[in-house]
C-alpha cells in the first residue's frame, strides 16, 4: 500500500512563472490520477518527469479557470502522442461541452476512448470503484458547484502465516485464496481452523483527501475521517477571514481545524493568494491548530507507505 | 515609425518546457498587439516582462490548440487584474462561443468591454483601421480555416522643412498642419509654394506579416509585397516535403521562396516540428533561397526602426 502525491501547482488565480495554479498527480495503489488541471499542467508534468501517458483518471473539482484551463491541452496532447488507452474525466456538468466544442471547431479527432463522468449531486457519491481504489466526492461550499475528492485504497488481501499453515498438512495451495479473503479453514473431519490462526492482518489501506476550493465546512471533516493525507486549501490568513468568507475560501487556521476534526494524519496547505509574499505565514498559522502540516510547492512529493 | 516583435513561443503542436507553441507580442507604431495565444502565453508574457495590460487587440490565426488554448486564461486574468480597457479579439467564427461557454459555466463576469470580430471570409479583409495602423487578413491554406495577418503602420505626416519655411514670413503656424498633410501653400497674392519646397518625406511606414499555419502558397507572397518583416511557418525541412504537403504545412525552403517572391526585407522562421533536434537546419535550408533570415526563439526580439 503506497501513496505518492506530486504537486504540480498550488497557487490561486492567475498563473505566474513561479506560481502555478492547482494541479496534482497522485499515484495510489498502482493507479495514476490527475487532480485538477490548470493552464500549464502538461508542462509541469513534463518538468517533473511524470510519465503522464499513465494517467487514466482526471478529477476536476470545479469550473474556475485555475482548476481546469489546462485540460483541453492535455486531452489534445494525449491525442498527438497517439494515446490508445481510455481516459476518464470526472467533473461538473458542462465540462464535456467545453471540451467537445473545442475539439469540434478545431476538427480534431480523439482516437482514444474519452469518457466524461459529469457530476451534479450535492451529496457524496462513489464515482470510481476499481479493483485497487475507490474515489468519492466530497461536496464543498464554494461560489460555484465544487467537489473535493476522497481517494481510498481497497483493502489488501490478508497475509498468509506460512509457519502456521505448514503445521496443517490438510491445507492445500488451493485454499490460500480463501484464507487471503478472510475465510476460516474447515478440514475433512469438520475441524475448524480460524482465519486469525492462519493469516496476519494486511497493511491498512491508505487514503488521501483533496479539498479545494471551499469555505470552512465542518461537514467536510466528517466525510474524510481518519484520512492519512489531507490537502485543504488555505487561500487566506486569519487576518483576511472576512475575505475568505466573502469569496468562499478558507484560512490556514480553518484548514488546520478541519484536519484536526477529521483526525487526519497529515495536512498539506495550498491555493495561496498572491497577496502574501511570505507563504511561511500559512504554516505558522496552521501549526497553532494542527502540528503535522506542510506547505505545498510545485515539484514537492508527499509519500506515505504502509507495507 | 518602429516595430518591435517579441517571440513568446514558436514551436508546433504540444507545449514542452523549452518549446512553447505559437504566440507573439507586437508593438507597432504605438499599438500593442498579441498574435496567437497558445497555452502558457500569459506566463511567457510575464517571463519576458511584457506589460501585457497594454494589449488591446488579439489576433488568432486558427482554431488548432497550439494557437489559441491560452486565450481563455488571458481573458480571465485580465478580468482578475481589474482591466477596464476594451479588448478586441479577431479570429475564426466559433472562437466567441468557445470563450463564452467557459465564462458562463464558471459564472465569471468580464467587467471590461470584450469584443469579438469573427472571421469567415476567404478573401483578404481590412479588419482593423486605427489612427496608427491597419491590419488585413492574409488567407492561408491549412487543414482548417486559417488567416495570416498583415500589419501596416499608417503613413506619418510630412516633416516640416523649418529652414525653408522661415524664409517665407507669410507662412503662419496655423498653416503647418496643411503642409504636414502634403498641401501646397498659396500666399495672399496667389503665389504658390509647392509642398515639396517646404517639407521632407516622412519615414516610410513599416509592415509585418504573420503567416502561420499554411502550406506553400504563392498567393500569400502577392498579398504581402515588400513587407519589412515576415514570419513564415516552417514546420518541416525539405526532406519531409511530402509530410508538409499532407499536413498543410511548409518547409524552410518554401518559406524562404515566399519571402523572396514577396520582396520581404527579412524573414523569420518558426513553428518547428519537434522531430528535429537541431533547429539550425531550418536556417541553413532557408538561407539557400533567401539571405536575410533568422530563427525564432522564445524571448527573442526583432526590432525594425525607420526614423
Explained architecture:
Two copies of one chain form a homodimer. The mean pLDDT of chain A is 94. With 307 residues, chain A is of the alpha/beta class. In chain A, the strands form four sheets. In chain A, strands 6-5-4-3-2-1-18 form a seven-stranded mixed β-sheet. Chain A has two domains: 258 residues, Ribonuclease Z/Hydroxyacylglutathione hydrolase-like (Metallo-beta-lactamase, Chain A), CATH 3.60.15; 42 residues, no CATH class. In chain A, strand 7 and strand 8 form a beta hairpin. Chain A has eleven helices and 18 strands. The N and C termini of chain A lie close together (6 Å). Helix content of chain A is 25%, strand content 28%. The radius of gyration of chain A is 22 Å and the shape is globular. In chain A, helix 10 crosses helix 11. At the A-B interface, helix 1, helix 3 and helix 4 of A face helix 1, helix 3 and helix 4 of B.
Amino acid at each position: 500500500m503506497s501513496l505518492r502525491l506530486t504537486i504540480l501547482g498550488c497557487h490561486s488565480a492567475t498563473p505566474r512563472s513561479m506560481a502555478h495554479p492547482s494541479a496534482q498527480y497522485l499515484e495510489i495503489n498502482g493507479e495514476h490520477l490527475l487532480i485538477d488541471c490548470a493552464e500549464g499542467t502538461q508542462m509541469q508534468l513534463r518538468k517533473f518527469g511524470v510519465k503522464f501517458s499513465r494517467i487514466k483518471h482526471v478529477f476536476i473539482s470545479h469550473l474556475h479557470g485555475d482548476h481546469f484551463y489546462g485540460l483541453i491541452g492535455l486531452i489534445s496532447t494525449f491525442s498527438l502522442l497517439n494515446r490508445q488507452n481510455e481516459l476518464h474525466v470526472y467533473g461538473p456538468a458542462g465540462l464535456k461541452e467545453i471540451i467537445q466544442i473545442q475539439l469540434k471547431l478545431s476538427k480534431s479527432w480523439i482516437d482514444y476512448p474519452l469518457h466524461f463522468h459529469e457530476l451534479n449531486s450535492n451529496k457524496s457519491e462513489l464515482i470510481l470503484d476499481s479493483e485497487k481504489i475507490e474515489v468519492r466526492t466530497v461536496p464543498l461550499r464554494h461560489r460555484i458547484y465544487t467537489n473535493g475528492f476522497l481517494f481510498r485504497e481497497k483493502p489488501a488481501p490478508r497475509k498468509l502465516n506460512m509457519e502456521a499453515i505448514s503445521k496443517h498438512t490438510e491445507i492445500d495451495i488451493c485454499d490460500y485464496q480463501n484464507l487471503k479473503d478472510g475465510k476460516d479453514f474447515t478440514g475433512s473431519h469438520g475441524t475448524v481452523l480460524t482465519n486469525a490462526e492462519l493469516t496476519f492482518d494486511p497493511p491498512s489501506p491508505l487514503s488521501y483527501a483533496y479539498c479545494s476550493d471551499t469555505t470552512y465546512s465542518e461537514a467536510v471533516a466528517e466525510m474524510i475521517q481518519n484520512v492519512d493525507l489531507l490537502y485543504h486549501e488555505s487561500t487566506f490568513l486569519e487576518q483576511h477571514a472576512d475575505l475568505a468568507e466573502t469569496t468562499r475560501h478558507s484560512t490556514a487556521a480553518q484548514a488546520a481545524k478541519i484536519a484536526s476534526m477529521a483526525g487526519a494524519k497529515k495536512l498539506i496547505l495550498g491555493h495561496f493568494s498572491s497577496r502574501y509574499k511570505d507563504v511561511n505565514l500559512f504554516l505558522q498559522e496552521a501549526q497553532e491548530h494542527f502540528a503535522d502540516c506542510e506547505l505545498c510547492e510545485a515539484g514537492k512529493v508527499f509519500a506515505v507507505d504502509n507495507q
